[in-house]
Amino acid sequence: MANPARTLFIISDRTGITLEHLVRTLMTQFDDSCCERMVLPFLDTPAKIEAAIREIEAASVHDAAPPVVFSSIVDETLRARLKEADAQVFDIFDTYLPSLSAAIGIPHSGHIGLSHGMGDQGEYDRRVDAVNFALNFDDGSRFRGLAEADLILVGVSRCGKTPTCLYLAMQYTVRAANFPLTEDDFLVGRLPEPLREHRDRLFGLTISPDRLHRIREERRPGSDYASLPQCRKEVSAAEDLFRSNLIPFLDSTSVSIEELSIEIMQRVGVERHY
C-alpha cells in the first residue's frame, strides 16, 4: 500500500529562496507525488509563527500524517516554538550551526536575512552592475566595452545564451556578454570581427537541432528560421566554427542552467563571486 501524500512546508524568516533550493535538491531523490510543497517566507514574529503552526496542524489533520517542515528560522525562541508543532521538523540551523561554531571557534551572529539582504552594499552594487552588463551586451547589441566582459557566450539564436548570462550575473556577479552566430558568419567560416580580439574569453553553446526546432517554432511557427533542416544546418555550422577556432563549447540541450553556468566558469577560469 502506497504511503499517503504529505504536505512539505519550507519556512523561513526571510525569502526562503536558499532553503527552497536545498529542499528541491533533496527531493529529487524521491517521487514528486510524495509531498505537496508550501513555502512560508518572512516568518519573523511570534504571531506569524503561530499562524504557520495553525496551517501546519491543519495539514496534519487533512493528510492524516504529520507534515514535513524544513526551517531556516534564525531566532532561537521562534525555532523552539515551531518544533512544538505536530510535524517532523528539520531545522537547518540547529543541524549545522553548533557544530560549525565549535569547529571554527566563533559564535554565530543570530542575524537574519544575510544571505539575500543588502548587507554588503559594494557586493550588491557589483551584482546590479553585472545584471545591467548582461542586458546591455545581450545578443550582440553592443561591441564597444566587450573588453570588460568576464566571458562572452556565442552560439546560434535561441540556444540559451541570454538566460545563462543573466544567471551568471545574478548568482555569481559575472559580467557575461553574448553574441549570436548568423548565416553570414557561417558563409565566410570566420568569427564575427568584434569577437576576434576577445578569443580567450569566448565560450560556445550548442543545442540539439530537434530541441532548437521546438523552441523556434514557439517563437516563429512555420518559418524557415524554425524549420528542422535550418536548425540542423546552423547547429552543425556553429560547432564546426567552434572547433576550427578552438573555442570550448557545451551542449545546453539537457543540462540545467545551474550546471551549465558552473561548468562554463570552471572551463573559462572565471572566479565566482557571491
Largest sheet at a glance?
4 strands, parallel
Which oligomerization state do the chains in this entry correspond to? single chain
The rough form would be described as: elongated
Order of helices and strands: EHEHEHEHHEHEHHEHHEH
Write down the CATH class of the largest domain: Alpha Beta
Structural class: alpha/beta
CATH architecture group name of the largest domain: 3-Layer(aba) Sandwich
Strands side by side in the biggest sheet: 2-1-3-4
Mean pLDDT: 89
Q: How far do the termini sit from each other?
A: 46 Å
List low-confidence stretches: none
What's the CATH topology label of the largest domain? Answer: Rossmann fold
Structural description of this entry:
Strand 3, helix 3 and strand 4 form a beta-alpha-beta unit. The strands form two sheets. Strands 2-1-3-4 form a four-stranded parallel β-sheet, sandwiched between helices. It has two domains: 99 residues, Rossmann fold (3-Layer(aba) Sandwich), CATH 3.40.50; 148 residues, Rossmann fold, CATH 3.40.50. The chain has 274 residues and is α/β, with parallel strands linked by helices. 46% of the residues lie in helices and 14% in strands. Helix 5 packs antiparallel against helix 6, helix 6 crosses helix 11 and helix 9 crosses helix 10. The chain is built from eleven helices and eight strands.
